[in-house]
Design brief:
The chain has about 240 residues and is mainly α. It has helices at about 1-40, 45-50, 55-60, 85-95, 100-110, 110-125, 140-150, 155, 175-190, 200-205, 210-220, and strands at about 65, 75, 100, 195. The strands form 2 sheets. The protein has a two-stranded antiparallel sheet. Strands 3-4 form a two-stranded antiparallel sheet. Strand 1 and strand 2 form a beta hairpin. Helix 4 packs across helix 5 and helix 9 (about 175-190) packs antiparallel against helix 11 (about 210-220). The termini are far apart.
Length: about 240
């Protein structure tokens, strides 16, 4: 009889432990769900973003402004870019998935709300309501057509390369060619603490191309009609 009681006691203990573990697991799931929902609920305020724009405007609001790292190139046009892409890019710099010392320093200084506000501001800056959609790039011929097809660029960035299928992907049509070239090379770069972009999809695509092909592809993309702009602030006009 004592052995039976001991066995029953052991079973009761296991049942209580399982219930406790289940409760802890459910609490963790609920916490993660609440945190995820909270993160998704952050909404950007374009007017607030305009007031937080000082660090961005010094480069992105000057027409023709050039950066010197990792090589000389025009800083990207971000006015009219998708808000979710801007958010994704800033978070990638913040986490170090995109290696760029100055951009990481800026991104690390921003809260999630700051990022959402700046993304909202730039996504609406210079945008004309009711503008006609850009034409598809199917008219590309020769080497350009081959390169676009090789990279399957339209499958993610849309037929105009300005209508991405996912809002976290960028519009690339009409972006500065030298910037596109530097960005594509960064996806090929490995083992460099200062340069590189950790994106498995883009890394796989970029590594298919030679440096010369990337330069030619970037030149073609940069020559397309664009929704992207550099909109100078009054102090830079």
């Amino acid at each position: 009889m004592p052995e039976v009681n001991l066995y029953q006691s052991h079973l009761d203990c296991l049942r209580k432990m399982n219930k406790l573990l289940l409760s802890v697991s459910l609490a963790l799931v609920a916490f993660v769900t609440v945190m995820s929902a909270s993160a998704q609920e952050i909404k950007g305020d374009a007017k607030a973003g305009e007031k937080k724009n000082a660090m961005c405007a010094g480069c992105h609001s000057i027409i023709g402004y050039q950066a010197s790292f990792p090589e000389i190139h025009k800083v990207p046009k971000i006015a009219g870019q998708g808000a979710k892409y801007i958010t994704s890019a800033l978070n990638a710099y913040k986490k170090g998935d995109r290696k760029h010392p100055s951009m990481r320093g800026i991104a690390e200084s921003l809260s999630d709300q700051d990022i959402a506000d700046l993304a909202a501001y730039f996504s609406t800056l210079g945008v004309t309501e009711g503008a006609a959609p850009l034409p598809a790039v199917a008219a590309a011929t020769g080497k350009a057509a081959e390169l676009v097809a090789k990279g399957n660029c339209t499958s993610c960035h849309g037929p105009s390369l300005s209508a991405p299928i996912d809002p976290t992907y960028p519009k690339i049509a009409g972006q500065h060619s030298d910037y596109v070239y530097v960005a594509l090379k960064a996806y090929k770069t490995e083992g460099n603490p200062q340069i590189g972009r950790g994106n498995a999809i883009m890394g796989g695509i970029a590594k298919q191309f030679s440096i010369a092909e990337l330069k030619e592809l970037a030149g073609y993309v940069g020559g397309l009609q664009s929704e992207l702009k550099t909109v100078p602030e009054n102090r830079f006009r």
